[in-house]
Design brief:
The complex is a heterodimer of chains A (142) and B (186). With 142 residues, chain A is mostly helical. Helix content of chain A is 56%, strand content 6%. In chain A, strand 3 and strand 4 (92-93) form a beta hairpin. The chains are: A mainly alpha (142), B mainly alpha (186).
């Protein structure tokens, strides 16, 4: 087999493999986000709006116990494609934007877990289905 | 085909195959919830000296601290107060919480034979902060004072800043590198 023939054969095979990986992360994401949004809609929320999610992202809340000012950027930074840092432990937080981190929004379980923890820490309460849907739309678009 | 071409061809094929396998692996990874394995099987599949579950769940916010530093009763207490975990909310799904508690208890100071960590700890005390244990303090007394000036953001709870193999649950002296200072000399 000459080099040219080999290149023409190998490239599509490799490209197919790569496409499948990227494609499956994308479809897993669409599946997980759609599933969450359907749950929120069933609870009476919607339609969801990325711009509203973005505004809520930087809305500052005062923690009743400590008096600390908290918003999503406290740990995640204002830029969703950037690496964040845990406020207390200093541990690296991988970017939230799927464009920078394809693993994001691919698992329903993970989305639920972090909404529960981080809404409670940041807002001092659970987020409403409407707020969660808006956040998901915003993150998804980044 | 000469050797070079074979290597290129092999590499490209391997990438393609890995891509395919990776794709297929995504689904089972979600579903492989319980196969009833031991601590380092199933959910606790070994991840460099840690249960993979502990590495993932505890390790997403901090170094997954070694279970052997606290007694079982401390872990029991901590794991029932995850809604206020040192000021953070670290709540887990009940099944995950139970799995992790079982791991921490089974590998705790009093169950794993690492009793030196319990020096000075009362029989019914439930210490929560490893950094406040007297044996921990004794072990870290040798950290040069200038470390703190050189690294103003460093705290004793960031094990992996100096213990370069902390992520693998390994804290040997020969693996210590203090930022700005270098290898630890006894």
């Amino acid at each position: 087999m000459n080099k040219q023939k080999m290149t023409t054969l190998c490239f599509p095979v490799a490209a197919l493999g790569l496409l499948l990986v990227v494609g499956s992360a994308t479809s897993a994401r669409a599946g997980a986000v759609d599933e969450m949004l359907a749950t929120y809609e069933a609870a009476g929320a919607g339609p969801f709006d990325a711009a509203r999610g973005e505004a809520a992202w930087t809305t500052v809340h005062l923690d009743a116990k400590t008096g600390q000012k908290r918003d999503c950027t406290t740990c995640h930074t204002p830029d969703l494609t950037a690496v964040g840092k845990h406020k207390k432990t200093g541990k690296r937080i991988e970017p939230l934007a799927p464009s920078a981190n394809p693993e994001r929004l691919t698992e329903v379980k993970t989305i639920k877990k972090w909404f529960q923890r981080n809404c409670k820490w940041t807002l001092g309460r659970l987020c409403t289905p409407q707020e969660k849907g808006d956040f998901l739309r915003d993150i998804q678009s980044q | 085909m000469n050797n070079k071409k074979t290597m290129i061809f092999g590499g490209v094929m391997l990438a393609a195959i890995l891509g395919l396998v990776g794709t297929l692996a995504i689904q089972p990874a979600v579903a492989s919830d319980d196969d009833g394995g031991g601590w380092f099987g199933g959910k606790h599949q070994d991840k460099g000296g840690f249960s993979a579950l502990v590495a993932e769940e505890c390790g997403s916010c901090h170094v997954p601290y070694p279970a052997r530093l606290l007694p079982a009763r401390s872990w029991d207490k901590m794991m029932t107060e995850l809604d206020n975990h040192f000021g953070d909310n670290a709540e887990l799904e009940p099944d995950v919480q139970a799995e992790i508690t079982a791991y921490l208890v089974a590998n705790s100071a009093d169950r794993s034979g690492k009793k030196k960590w319990l020096r000075g700890v009362g029989k019914n005390d439930t210490p929560q902060r490893m950094t406040e244990l007297s044996y921990f303090k004794k072990e870290h007394r040798e950290v040069p004072k200038r470390t703190w000036g050189l690294n103003p953001e460093l705290t004793l709870s960031q094990c992996d800043s100096c213990h370069t193999k902390a992520a693998n649950n390994s804290y040997r002296e020969r693996d210590i590198v203090i930022p700005g200072i270098g290898k630890f000399e006894d």
